[in-house]
Amino acid sequence: MTGWGRAVARLLALQAAWNYERMQGIGMGWAAEPLLRDLRATDPARHPAATVRSAEFFNGHPYLAGLALGAAARAEYDGATAEQVQRLRTALGGPLGALGDQFFWAGLLPALSGCAILGVTLGWPGLAVGGLLVAWNALRLATTGWALRTGLREGLGVGRAIRESWLTGAAQRIGRFAGLAVGAAIPIGGAWLLGGLTGTTGLTALAVAAVGVLLARIRPAWFTGLRYGLLLIAAVALLTITGILIGGRQA
After folding, report:
1. CA distance 127 to 139
2. Could you give the CA distance from residue 201 to residue 235 in angstroms, rounded to a whole number?
């Protein structure tokens, strides 16, 4: 089976033909076309039907869609029935969507954003923003290539391969790191915008960030985003009241 590189390139534009009827189906069909070309020679009677099936309804995370694309293509070459291929695509959509959202949108993106904010506050704006863009796109491209290779290798057994892969554990770990990065970036970045990391404002921001990191490390199940938000509000209120009292005494 050839066409892996062309399929990866086409997966990068998977949602360019997104529509309400087939969701990502048209993009999946376009990306599958290079993978299915060899069927013209090995199984010419199957090729037209396989091409049509590849463009049917599909909705999953676009960065992990290669798992479903590769698995379905391998199943076509292995002689799976049309019902088996369709069930495979349908069964993978939801789990890939949830896993991709957890890893990319709720984990990697806020983690890199938090690190970039911290980098800006430390005086490295170009490096921080450039690093964010390079890291995000490099990981996105690497994951797309890995997903397609894994799907092509496993075929109908891709579900087991996903469960045993690095992705499931990484989704949990990156989520915890994202909480730490954003938890530190919000107060420190806010203090930096208000005038810098020196004085009472800076010390309060650093204290809140340190407490947030510590609690997230010690009690991750208890220390939710809501509780951290309340801690931030309490810190701001305390800082404001302290400033008013000091100003009143000086007057």
Report:
1. 18
2. 10
Q: In the numeric block, which tokens belong to residue 229?
A: 């938000």
- For residue 229, how many other CB atoms are within 10 A of its CB? 11
H helices present in the chain, as ranges? 4-11, 25-36, 39-42, 47-54, 65-77, 82-100, 109-121, 125-154, 158-163, 166-193, 199-218, 225-250
98 and 196 part of one domain: no
Tokens 């400033």, residue located: 243
pLDDT tens digit sequence for 157-204: 999 999 999 998 998 888 878 877 877 777 676 666 656 555 565 566
Between helix 65-77 and helix 4-11 the angle, nearest 10°, is: 140
Residues 189 and 83: their CA atoms lie apart, in Å, by 53
Give the structural domain span for 16: 4-164
**Local structure of residue 234 (DSSP, 8 states):** H
Among residues 126, 48, 40, 41, the alpha carbon closest in space to that of 82 is found at: 48
Q: How does pLDDT run across 13-72, given as a tens digit for each residue?
A: 999 999 999 999 999 999 999 999 999 989 999 999 999 999 999 999 999 999 999 999
3-state secondary structure of 76: helix
Count of domains in the chain? 2
Q: Which of 129, 145, 164 is the last residue of a domain?
A: 164
Domain boundary pick from 133, 164, 195: 164
**Residue 58: what are its φ and ψ, rounded to 5°?**
-155, 140
Residue type, 176: R
